[in-house]
Amino acid sequence: MAIPADRNFVQKEAEKKLKYNSLCIEMQRMWNLKCTIVPVIIGATGIVTRSLKKNLVTIPGKHSIDSLQKTAIFGISHITRKVFYMYTKYEIVY
Questions:
Q1: Mind listing the pLDDT tens digit for each residue in 15-58?
Q2: How far apart are CA 42 and CA 67, in angstroms?
Q3: pTM of this prediction?
Q4: Residue 1, domain member (yes or no)
Q5: Domain that holds residue 27
């Protein structure tokens, strides 16, 4: 799973497929398993790829795109809050 900036989330999907392809091939060779790479990419503001719905069907269980978007946005807001707190904590007042 990745949460990239909105302008490069399509490239992130291709990067994830390329990154995990060698691991998938190695698992097939070592343990004789069927392996499929399922990229789940949600942008920092909740934008999803066109293939997300199709990819979620291949993962067992019940998944909601809304809840995944909500989780991504909460994660980004948590990171932003931590960064703002860090800057205000060390701010020098003249």
A1: 889 999 999 999 999 999 999 999 888 887 888 888 899 999 99
A2: 11
A3: 0.69
A4: no
A5: 6-89
* DSSP H/E element including 31: helix 9-31
CB 56 within 8 A of CB 63: yes
Residue 63 lies in a domain: yes
Token pair for residue 17? 């497929």
Alpha-carbon separation of residue 58 from 10, 42, 55, 81 (angstroms): 19, 17, 5, 35
Q: Is residue 47 within 8 Å of residue 9, measured between CB atoms? A: yes
**What's the total number of domains in the chain?**
1
Please compute, for residue 58, the number of CA atoms within 13 A of its CA located in the half-sphere on the CB side: 10
Higher pLDDT, 1 or 36: 36
Q: And the tokens for 65?
A: 């795109």
